[in-house]
Design goal:
The protein has eleven helices and ten strands. It has 326 residues and is an alpha/beta fold. The chain has two domains: 197 residues, HUPs (Rossmann fold, 3-Layer(aba) Sandwich), CATH 3.40.50; 103 residues, GMP Synthetase, Chain A, domain 3 (2-Layer Sandwich), CATH 3.30.300. The strands form two sheets. Strands 3-2-1-4-5 form a five-stranded parallel beta sheet, with helices on both faces. Strand 2, helix 3 and strand 3 form a beta-alpha-beta unit. The N and C termini lie far apart (42 Å). The mean pLDDT is 94. The structure holds xanthosine-5'-monophosphate.
Length: 326
């Protein structure tokens, strides 16, 4: 293994020089990888996207990206990953639509932590199967960032990037953003020309919309989560709130409430709007949203989203509540 170069900014008490970082990192990747090939699980999140862009710059088509759609992604996400990386940057990209596989495994499972476990384990299993197809690939790239390492060291949480894979397949790791904080990763992403909405994305949990379709996930209710989330993001963007509010999404709980349409009684789902201001996700408060915005959201969600008759805005701070509903 070649000697590691510690290329970074604030992690070493200095301001990051973005252009210098990119040049040095591209050279370091070329040195580490030689004429070898690299595999990357590309989720479309900030970290893996920036890693992909850096590797494409360094080794072009010797990077093999695998984008797994577990069926719990937001509307338009797989399409954006394909558009940006395959069409625009010419990446070698394998797209795996594993929606049925994940939703079948999750059918009837209501306990939140069991859902998380199934999604996490199934993801690793699937990626292992895909990785096994790349017999001549020696390197595995990961979007590990500096806070992941600090938190693992302090024992706050286990480092959650594709655990176990390197050992199992004898991969050597390539972790080009390992010594960067999130804002530095974003600056590098912008300089590499990634779309602004990809670089400035709000945090999105690994289990995706699965923890926002509470209880046992059904396809129709999951679709209500996806569609209402898309409307929420669209209206927040129109209102100039994109990038200003830490995180915003919708939840569709596993309950039905009584409604009335054209004089007929209905039993449909409520949609809960969750928007929070935070600095580190450890504590959070609900922002004072404009009434007209809430009004527009309510009208659009109740008319455009199938199976929904009611909209609520969750004002709960963290603590007492967590940001996600489960
Ligand atoms: P909570 O709900 O614990 O969320 O207040 C804090 C932050 O973490 C995100 N979150 C997750 N991220 N896997 C993830 O990768 C998870 O299982 C998970 N659960 C919560 C959440 O979206 C928020 O930003």
């Amino acid at each position: 293994m070649s000697e590691e170069k510690k290329i970074g900014g604030r992690a070493f008490g200095r301001e990051l020089n973005v252009q210098e970082f990119i040049d040095e990192q591209v050279a370091a990747i070329r040195e580490q990888v030689g004429d070898g090939k690299v595999l990357l699980a590309l989720s479309g999140g900030v970290d893996s996207s920036v890693v992909a862009a850096l590797l494409i710059k360094a080794i072009g088509e010797r990077l093999y990206c695998v984008h797994v759609n577990h069926g719990l992604l937001r509307k338009g996400e797989p399409e954006q990953v394909i558009e940006v990386f395959q069409k625009n940057l010419g990446a070698n990209l394998t797209y795996v639509d594993a929606t049925d596989r994940f939703l079948d495994k999750l059918a009837g499972v209501a306990a939140p932590e069991t859902k998380r476990k199934i999604i996490g384990e199934e993801f690793i299993r699937l990626f292992e199967e895909e990785a096994a197809k790349f017999t001549d690939v020696k390197f595995l790239a990961q979007g590990t960032i500096w806070p992941d390492i600090l938190e693992s060291e302090k024992g706050v949480k286990a480092h959650h990037n594709v655990g176990g894979l390197p050992e199992k397949f004898g991969f050597e790791l390539v972790e080009p953003v390992k010594y960067l904080f999130k804002d530095e990763v974003r600056a590098v992403g912008e300089a590499l020309g990634l779309p602004k909405d990809m670089v400035w994305r709000q945090p999105f949990p690994g289990p995706g919309l699965g923890v926002r379709c509470t209880g046992a996930i059904t396809r129709d209710r999951l679709e209500a989560v996806r569609e209402s989330d898309a409307i929420l993001r669209e209206e927040f963007a129109k209102a100039g709130l994109e990038g200003k509010i830490w995180q915003y999404f919708t939840v569709v709980p596993d309950i039905r409430t009584t409604g009335v349409v054209d004089g007929q009684r209905t039993e449909l789902w409520p949609v809960i709007i969750r928007a929070i201001d935070s600095v580190d996700a450890m504590s959070a408060v609900a922002p004072r949203l404009d009434w007209d915005l809430l009004d527009t959201l309510t009208r659009r969600i109740t008319t455009e989203v199938k199976g929904v008759s009611r909209v609520l805005y969750d004002l709960s701070p963290k603590p007492s509540a967590t940001i996600e509903w489960e």
